[in-house]
């Protein structure tokens, strides 16, 4: 895959997906809805050595996945940013996360630079329950972080760890959203599931928590938390796609609740670490049959309001 001429148009084939045709399909989707583009709250950019290790994990059919997981958009950073621009993604994130103590401050420093050189990126930061976490989270907030990523499964930590309590309070007061992988998909972790998240929200009800992957596979439980707490949202990352429906199908009986919570569902995709083309996530949302107004809110309006864009 390459950039074509001065226009920065992406050409070639990405993981078996024709990039030009893919971009045309994505733009047709949001153009038909009358949107100026998309806002994707769950895209991954991180230091290249870390991203390569993530890809190697997927390639090796790691224990958290246990399945073939081809990376569709396995390209250099510049090309991946260009693809999102060609798709018409007006704002996106650089979801990054540590798997052990001692990584977060370094990752956050990288994220500052990435956001500075990538105007469309919502400056993203991360955290881990460790000594000094309150200080570096405050530093990230003061440096302009717009969203945080918390990965309870990979980090194998409890969101209710006492070291994190001042952090959640700070982020709740600042109104900064936290995208949290807290569902038990694709494999349960020691601290995943709705119960620990419910305890966290009972103590910090104003925390702007965005449940990644719709809380897969505990969809109904996380929808219930959103009904109970007005600042809880869910992102669509990989949910409803053919890939995920084979593993953890969304309950048809919950579509009514999904429609009713249409003002708190946000588009997320997991780009570039997805085993299918970007447009398939959009097609999966459309085939739910919840209507164009719902799609417009999910794919743009809800995130626009949340981040004050």
Automatic annotation (TrEMBL):
Keyword line: Lyase
Membrane-spanning parts: none
Lineage top rank: taxon: Bacteria
Pfam families: Amidohydro_2 (PF04909)
Domain Amidohydrolase-related: 39-309
Protein name: Amidohydrolase family protein
